[in-house]
Fold this protein.
Amino acid sequence: MRCTMSHDEKKENPVSIAEEKKAKKADLREMTSCPSTLQMLKKLEADGHDSVFTRAAEMKPCPIGAESACCKHCFMGPCRLNAKDPYARTGVCGATIDTIAARNFARNVAAGGAAHTDHGMVMLDVFRDVVNGKVAHFKVQDEDKLRNVAMSIGIPTENRSVKDIANDLYSELERTYTQVEGEIPFAKRVPPKTLELWRKHGIVPRGAMREIMELMHRTHMGVDQDYNNIVRQCSRTALADGWGGSMVATEISDILFGTPEPRVAGVNMGFLREDQVNILIHGHEPLLFEGMIAASNDPANIELAKAAGAKGINLLGMCCSGAEVLGRHGIPHAGNFVSAEPIIATGAVDAIGVDVQCIMQALPKMADCYGTKFFTTNPRAKIEGATHFEFHEREPLEAPNKIIAMAVERFRNRTAKIVIPQRQDWGVHGFSHEYVNYMLGGKFRGSYTPLNDNIINGRIRGVAGVVGCTNPRVKQDWVHVELVKELIKHNVLVVQTGCSQIALAKAGLMKPDAAVLAGEGLQEVCETVGIPPVLSLGSCVDNSRILIACAEMVRIGGLGDKISDLPVAGAAPEFMSEKAICIGQYFVASGVYTIFGVTFPTVEGTKFHELLFNGLEEQGFGKWGFATDPIEMAGMMIDHIDKKRAALGLTEKRERKLFSMEDRRAAAE
Ligand code: NFS
Ligand code: SF4
């Protein structure tokens, strides 16, 4: 298309291609604090390939878009406002900066929530088919969890068969998506006072389909033009994710594939094996990975690999697919989101299978450069140029068998030079909220009482959830690691999910001996219980485990009667996805102070920004925060935790006997 921009507009336009091309290439060492990724970035550079890092350095983000001061919701526009003087003009239709930014934010929430809830719904579909005997390969593996989840939403379990309970659970949980009125089933797990606040504001979710549809409707041109009202529906939709779709995804995955328990598992590229057929699974839903695990244990496939001269088949995870099986099965994890291209650059990956979400379109091309076979498997996510082997849960070995055959073929004909960074980082992974119960309270009287007690007596100052993506706009892993170190130093117990937990695992903080980096009180607790100061909880949908943990802390008592009373805070310091925005909003709506880094899609000083960063807290919810510096971010979280402690009257360190091993054993008897 011909450029019709005036000279003045060109000057004003921040993303002129000429300017981009002139953008200085950043130093590779400034792009990542992960040594393996750095080694591979150097290799990529030497091999003449770009990556998400170099593309980010070359393409400056549009500052108007970064502050969400533009709208393309109709074709009278696109309209862009002046972010420096945001009230100076409106869109063609008269939309203000507050309406425009709130609608953009709402669209992020809708897309992010849709991703998680669709994932959850797929898990529920499989659960139904398993219960009805239509999927023979998978079965209910954790009957205790099935009963507990059923009981938590009022389904009778006593003297009932697994099949009957499971059928009732299915019909009940289907409402998480489809019900047109009333409250989603897991609203029953929300602390009563928090639920009361949601009811007062009319934000208890109905089915996710309804909430997402309504949010999309309201953000269409000419519908909801009151940022307060838009944010209310953002909360309702986001809650349908956190306490709905994501929670269903977590609970059903645990029921079908087993609830994670702490186990020693490895993270980093050093788990690629030159002498084995290496297969990387990347994406989100655990189904493909479970199928791959079964197929790679099939003696016929192992034989196939051996016949090609390999010692065996080596499966590795990436991103959240990897996080699902790291704690659940101890499968090694190769790296987080921005490491995908560097991992391919090792030349050691024979095949990559992907399903949905966070799969960069650059990957198949990069795979091609290094002779790696690349396969999409989900009908929702095909990539131009990639081979598609569709995964069907009724025949869950079919696509995995094909992937293995192609991977073996590539192993046999390997031509790429193989360079594997030799780092292997071992740590403890798989802390489900059930296990937190058990580890602190003993098997038969499992409870959060000891955690609450240790918070009350001040040994643990509070709890922080540090979660989310890595983003090439900042130095990979650095903010996550420095933030978490600062938090534990100040006796804040850290729980983690997603790509963030992989950053900390690579930094060695998921080992129990990392407790030496913690403040005295937290160190004492970690040493007594035998846990690291940073707990790895799973994938991004497993942020729902953090919600349940918060609800449990409220239920046990002594820390207020709402989630917003708890001395807790959350952060996604290197976020990049719309899912992260939705997660942030459901934590805020649940009552948690949640800080994001990198950038935040608002113009400071606008009414919409003020509502997210202060107004919501005044209404009794949590609130948003923003910081890019990890120490500043930690300071904001700690100040908030201290504010909550003060409100609970916990200003002084109160002594209370810490549970010793003997006490715990006695409690378990
Ligand atoms: Ni979460 Fe998982 Fe990683 Fe971010 Fe992407 S993999 S759902 S979105 S990048 S943490
Ligand atoms: Fe512009 Fe209004 Fe259309 Fe948005 S909805 S593009 S602000 S005219």
Summary: The domain at 268-412 is CATH 3.40.50.2030 (Rossmann fold). The chain has four domains: 7-63, 97-257, 268-412, 432-668. The pocket of FE(4)-NI(1)-S(5) cluster (ligand 1) is lined by residues 284, 319-320, 337, 358, 468-469, 498-499, 540, 577, 579-580 (CB under 6 Å). Residues 97-131 form the longest helix (35 residues).
